[in-house]
Amino acid sequence: AQKITQTQPGMFVQEKEAVTLDCTYDTSDPSYGLFWYKQPSSGEMIFLIYQGSYDQQNATEGRYSLNFQKARKSANLVISASQLGDSAMYFCAMREGGDTGRRALTFGSGTRLQVQP
Amino acid sequence: DSGVTQTPKHLITATGQRVTLRCSPRSGDLSVYWYQQSLDQGLQFLIQYYNGEERAKGNILERFSAQQFPDLHSELNLSSLELGDSALYFCASSVESLNTEAFFGQGTRLTVV
Fold this sequence. Notes:
heterodimer, A: mainly beta, 6-stranded mixed sheet, 4-stranded antiparallel sheet, 0% helix, 50% strand, B: mainly beta
């Protein structure tokens, strides 16, 4: 079974509008972390935001916020006031805490966001 | 700048050949991860090293191997290369903690012809 599911292969948004990128996850581990990364066309992976499974509040980092719904196992990324520079591929990822030896991130398939002027 | 350095940035080689990709982690990070990003497989975890020891294996082929040296830099060796090995290979490093992000290098784009 997919551990991280991103159901939107591509999204369009108008400049200055908000956009939500969906992410659902699957784990039986009570301790986990959820991450969002941005990959522009240049290829590098840029960390955006983190949410821990025990965090009571939704994470926010500038224009990025994470809509964390634990019961639904979803961790959607909200980008407010979109800018042209936000056009990129966005990946949701999870790190599980049960096996302390393994801290690798499991990634979703990504969502390509295009911001239109 | 993530602080993770990967060399080379680009590599073109022929089928059947062997290549070595190099990664220097961020200062202080003991964990190094290797990922492969291809169009059909997405971002796949290959292998993790922690302070010189192999810690976890993902979808790494037997033709591929890695090691981490005492200075914590890591190398990923790819041998008997096939066309399907063409991909972007990332190295990432992190501290050993659940709630800290992994920092990625710029990647090595491997093209097998």
